[in-house]
Amino acid sequence: MDFKPFVAASKKIPELTLGPVLIGAILGIVFGASSLYLALKVGMTVSASIPVAVLSITVFRALSKVFRTRPATILENNMTQTTGSAGESIAFGIAVTMPALLILGHEMELTRVMVVAVLGAVLGVLLMIPLRKALVVAGHGRLPFPEGTACAKVLIAGEEGGTSAATVFGGFFLGLAYKFLNLGLRLWHDVPYKAFTWFKGAFLAIEVSPELLGVGYIIGPRIAAITVAGGLVSSWVLTPMIKLFGDGLTSPLFPAVKLISEMSSGEIWKNYVLYIGAGAVAAGGIISLFQSLPTIIHGAKEGMKGFQAAKKGKSTIERTDRDLPLPFVLAGIVALVFAIWLTPSLHMNIVGAVLIVVFGFLFVTVSARLVGEIGSSSNPISGMTVATLLLTSLIFLLLGWTDTFDRIAALSVAGIVCVAASNGGNTSQDLKAGHLVGATPSFQQIGILIGALTSASVIGYTLVLLNDASTIYSNKNLPAVTVPNVASLTEMESVRDSAHADDKASYHVLRVGEVQTSGPLAGLVSGKYLVDDAGVIKYLVDPGINGVLKNRDNGTQVQKYDAPKARLMSLIIDGILAQKLPWGLVLLGVSLAIVAELCGVPSLPFAVGVYLPLSTSAPIFVGGCVRWLVQRRSRRKAKAGAEAVDETESGPGILYSSGLIAGGAIAGIGIAMLSLREDWAAALAIGTNWPALEHSTALPLVVFAIMAFILYRVAMRKG
């Protein structure tokens, strides 16, 4: 097939220059932070390439007018989106894996998070370089690469004067303002909740969040409806059923340590439905992998061809066919193996380092192939991560590696592979956009590496900040357990929570990796505890990503993050290496996923709905409904002969939703920073002076409906 890029291969125009790389790195950090926030809330992200491309065009156009300089070329704008898109993919990989350390009772050290982010990001780019010719060039016409193709269209339209970032900025500032008024000033409740007294255990709840509304619009009505269906199964079927049959029990039912009759709906979800949802998500991820098995096999073959073709080292004078040299790629991979093995914070052995490269090559190839066929949004990265963690944990179990450091090593393997697969898929989309506009692949690959390194270095700080701002030291309703051999607990820690600022004592740190059902620690759930010299537990350290408690002991509210995929990773590690897991509940979830597939329903989004609280999937469903209304209206216009609404990946509704996500997430991060100082947060929360306003159920629904209507009106604009 004859193909002519927008910029001819023989034409040389500015491309890899300082300004685009710098702006791209800054935008990558912003969108990486917002994607991390979103992934902690709902376990998913959305592609940042198109919003970054739109912003790049407008920023450089404005700068050229102000400083009377030449406007940025299309290849410079492409370099900005290439550099800036790396943050989103890295954020997803980190949010899916690293918070599991806290759930397992370990520390989420900043250096470990940053090392996993950097090594995974670089590995993903390096492994994708030899695959470019096989997938992007030879696959042209067969693999559509939807986000990459849409991004190229945006860049070409911008070059011709047809693109504006007003839509993205509009969504960004609305999301920012809404979130600030909601969570900063607390002018209305963020999660309206209604329990059914006539249907014990069932409830309705919705988180009135701009970023979740935007996610629902982007993923569309079908997936949004399937996700909320899973949430309804969780809150209207499973929870009431457990309440109905468990109310008469006179002893706690494993894995809980409390009577079901004394539990709230939230406690039932945490102790039982959570495991059912985890089983469903794991099964859904594995099913999606099996469904992609032909692609996996074909992609592996194409990957080997790509390496062989690159190894031949065919020289070409055309800049549009110039990759970074294969010796550089191979040397980089070897250096990464030694870096993974020798980095102290990873606690990695040589077997784990080799597994990372093997799994990384397999899943980067699969990820790049899948995003070429179905796009980034449908890429089952979490399923690949589950498969990696399952296989790694089984290998470690067979070798007898089951101690604390081995669990950290197993999770690090999964974390690096997840980041690599996610960034590899993102890189393939960027290279496709570059292929269409006529970019130089080697320059793009350098830009991606720069964007990956800058974003990875900041994402660790963002994750730690979000967690620390919402971590609670609770001394209420602690188990009556006396810890033996306190002297053996040499690690000491003081209370870092302003709710207990008067407690200046230093306590022993007890880390519990799994639920204790027997022995002197029976009744303790996994996590970190502070113990005094007498062996009495004084505090439960509940991390911000644990999504359980919402109030400090002094009554002030904090925003918690459910981190659904990270919780799943912790359950897999516990279930295999500790060999302690409520398998009956997990198998119920597996059965739900299988039933969904047999009914023709994609099991993974359904399982994610079961796994997430209904309050999270409900606003996603509202966003999907807005998209459905826009599509319905567009079809009617098309039939009537009028100009149809633009419903492509670069349409106004998609761009506005991307802005909502970024604005809401950035506001959430800013509020988390403020909450590190409770006096600042308290001074800001003026809504607490009017309790009727803050706790109203109707007000947040009205404000959220107005925001949804604005999204509908923007999406219905022509062009």
| Average of pLDDT | 82
Overall spatial form: globular
Radius of gyration: 25 Å
- The proportion of strand residues reads under 5%
Strand order of the largest sheet: 3-7-6-5-4
State the major sheet: 5 strands, antiparallel
Structural class: mainly alpha
How widely separated are the two ends?
A: 31 Å
Q: Catalogue the unreliable spans.
A: none
Number of strands: 7
Tell me the helix content: 55-70%
SS field, number of helical segments: 26
Characterization of the model:
The protein is mainly α. It is built from 26 helices and 7 strands. Among the domains are: 18-164 and 293-311 and 318-469, no CATH class; 472-542, no CATH class. Helix 10 crosses helix 22 (614-639), helix 11 (221-246) packs across helix 12 (265-291) and helix 16 packs antiparallel against helix 17 (404-437). It is globular and about 75 Å long. The two termini are 31 Å apart.
Considering the chains and any ligands shown, give keywords for the structure.
719 residues, globular, mainly alpha, 5-stranded antiparallel β-sheet, two-stranded antiparallel sheet
